[in-house]
Amino acid sequence: MTQATASPPSLGSVPDEHGRFGPYGGRYVPETLIPALEELEAAYLEARNDRAFQAELAHLLRTYVGRPTPLTYARRLSEHLGGARIYLKREDLAHSGAHKINNALGQALLVKRKMGKQRIVAETGAGQHGVATATAAALLGLECVVYMGTVDMERQRPNVFRMRLLGTQVRGVDSGSRTLKDAINEAIRDWVTHVRTTHYLLGSALGPHPYPAMVRDFQAVIGREARAQMLDPQTGPGRLPDVIVACVGGGSNAIGIFHPFLEDRAVRLIGVEAGGLGIESGQHAARFGDPRLGRLGVLHGTKSYVLQNPDGQIALTHSISAGLDYASVGPEHAWLRDLGRAEYTYCTDDQALEGFQLLCRFEGIIPALESAHAVGHVLELAPQMGPDEVILINLSGRGDKDLDTVMAALGEDLGEGGNP
Amino acid sequence: MRGVERIQEAFARARAAGRAAFMPYHAMGYPDRESSLAVIHTLAQVGADLFEIGIPFSDPLADGPTIQAATHQALSQGTTVADCLAMVRELRTAGIAQPFCAMSYYNPILAYGEERFVADARDAGIDGLIVPDLPPGESPELETACREAGLGLIFLLAPTSTPERIRTVVAHATGFVYLVSVTGITGARDRLPPDLVAFVERVRRFTELPLAVGFGIANREQAAQVAAVADGVIVGSALVKAAAQGLDAVRELGRELVTGTQVPFST
Questions:
Q1: Catalytic one among B5, B49, B52, B164?
Q2: What is the ipTM of this complex?
Q3: Model confidence over A187-228: pLDDT tens digits?
Q4: What is the pTM (predicted TM-score) of this model?
Q5: Residue B246 falls within a domain, yes or no?
């Protein structure tokens, strides 16, 4: 890993005008989409400086999403692990069950107020972004189509039904690996075809410029709130955390919580990728964690680390969590890693399941399997730290959607159970 | 003669004959290695002026179902980038003289190494590159490598392209400019969009380079419509579909399309 340079650049100043985060990012898309990206960039820049737009978004986040989400001290889990004190940023309590709504609502409002389009398309893996987009579309009266791999539709059936209830058309994608990557391909194909009337509501800090920056900015509300809550003794420990841990699929919840802490150089930032069945197995989604398959590449419009074979064909990934099951990672994460500002590790399916169960039993919180990867890493990390140290986990979503998967993995009979 | 000169010469010869260039695409390795070579030979015999050599990619987001399925099959049979270049070399050895433009997505080229890909492609007999997810300016390295090797680097324009964008794209383009007939992905369509003529004329004001139109062209009548306004007619999905039926189907459709490029379309 490249170490931070002696005089670190201002971390908040990326991307540049070409959408570059150092060597990463950019705009690798068919020419048909270039005018739409230019239009989106203009609309976004305008909205960013438009007080009325920002006030309307803030109002919706407060009165509809339920922000600010709480900061919870995980007392029993901290005591059980016997090390650092663990705090949870409760994005699982945001309306529709995950952090995804922050971005979905932000983009949907942008479409409504600044772009004059009536139709949105989106991709979804776990279904959380699809549900968030369907929710925003219902709230703002937009036509919505969500593409979802048929494998994911099977493992996330409740979310498919939720989207349909919300008035969204869910279209199954049967090509390729029939998961998130293929859903994105299909959403982009729809967008290319209907670009004059349709906005692509991309769900992570990925894709061509300006998506990685725009999604980050809509998600940075997580980190801004968390930073204030940590510093306030009424809501948190009255100090900054020593470590922040977040799961990284595309990386939107992680970049959202990391970003407002970038200049707090003493705060370690740790992103947790999906280690699946282990790196050796090749069955994972650890773009940084597997130097054999994870190399510089271009997928879905952005240059970043991409799991691929030596011939540049995108690798099939595996994770117990559909939301982390993706071959590439947001370009800003690759840049923060090069700078040495953030570190990336991984957590296997089994470790995530252990984190999932412990959070249920010690805190009464059922986390999304994605977020359980962050918890899984903390199971290792917290005991190595002292009780005077503080870990902040971004609990990005709730786990109701994952009960079928967890039941299949653990068996329905959990034994005697009982609270320890 | 090779590289961008061979591409220019193909357009000049077609123009001198009073017709548009017929530019078939084929996915290498589909339906299998030997058949894909036979498809190129067959189309060369019926009068192709330039070939687009499709190098398969796992996530072809500018392609419709026909080419997706064909390239997926080619990949599942083990077709690699190096294989595709080896096939090009075999075609040259067998005497195919038409210009070849490699058509692939950016990631396989990046993984191969941009400079190395350009050098190996040139040695194999490739004359130009078409990379649909690489807009001008995103890879100065590939643009420089192509320029130094004398290969054409063909960029695309779409009906949505603004005048500023057209100006930028034609400034970077060499060989010819690829006009996407529709806002959409590749695939045969029943009819071409009514604003195609205006689109071609709009681009014509900005460049002397030959203009070739692709996406959606599937039959003689459509080829003739395009030939009436553009310098080249690109056909992909319809021929790939024919290739699934066999060489006779390819030959028949190829002949029909060649006839289309020779018949000035009258309204």
A1: B52
A2: 0.95
A3: 999 999 999 999 999 999 999 999 999 999 999 999 999 999
A4: 0.95
A5: yes
